[in-house]
């Protein structure tokens, strides 16, 4: 039929004109990223980090550069914790490997820099914990330990009246 293609095209245009808007007015409006999004900066909870190095061992691209030292109590601490983000695959294995859930990805996505030397992220200088964190790899908090039951002294046990047994009045 003559003009069938035009009618079909107009139909698509009319349908899209009334359908919900999908584009976002970036950069005027910041996009709402999915909470499990990964692809930006890292964040480190320095207080929780035990300097075990498991995150670096889990990384397939050797992105994490760490150096450790020991204090007077023989406790390890980090003296260098740099993410060489230019090699990062954003696979998230480092986040998953952390036994203390102290390494995170953030929802920060505007990470472009003018100088390639600025791409690596020094997590000791800028831990990014003030940024919105991705929920990727987040583990549920550990259950609180149950406090031990206080010991009952023999004297207190003897003074406790016997409860009536089942069926007794
Ligand atoms: S996201 Fe993957 S590639 Fe990037 S630092 Fe972590 S383990 Fe390495
Ligand atoms: S795995 Fe976690 S606790 Fe261990 S060094 Fe990495 S960030 Fe720190």
Question: Helices, strands, pairings?
Answer:
Layout lengths: L3 H15 L23 E3 L9 H5 L5 E7 L5 E8 L9 H5 L5 E3 L15 E2 L31 H6 L10
Antiparallel strand pairs: 1-4, 2-3, 3-5
The structure holds iron/sulfur cluster (2 copies).
One iron/sulfur cluster (SF4) binds next to helix 2.
What would you say this structure looks like, in words?
- The strands form two sheets. A three-stranded antiparallel sheet has the order 2-3-5, with no helix packed on it. A two-stranded antiparallel ribbon has the order 1-4.
- It is flat, with a radius of gyration of 29 Å.
- The protein is built from four helices and five strands.
- The chain has a domain at 29-139: Alpha-Beta Plaits.
- The relative contact order is 0.18.
- It starts with a helix and ends in a 10-residue tail after the last helix.
- With 169 residues, it is an alpha+beta fold.
- A hairpin with a 5-residue loop joins strand 2 (64-70) and strand 3.
CATH architecture type of one domain: 2-Layer Sandwich
The shape, in one word, is: flat
CATH class placement of one domain: Alpha Beta
* CATH fold type of one domain: Alpha-Beta Plaits
End-to-end gap? 95 Å
Given as residue ranges, the uncertain stretches (5+ residues, pLDDT < 50) are: none
- Helices and strands, in order, run as HEHEEHEEH
Number of beta-strand segments:
5
The total of helices stands at: 4
Structural class: alpha+beta
What summary fits the major beta sheet?
3 strands, antiparallel
Mean pLDDT: 88
Bound molecules: iron/sulfur cluster
Give the quaternary arrangement of the chains.
Answer: single chain
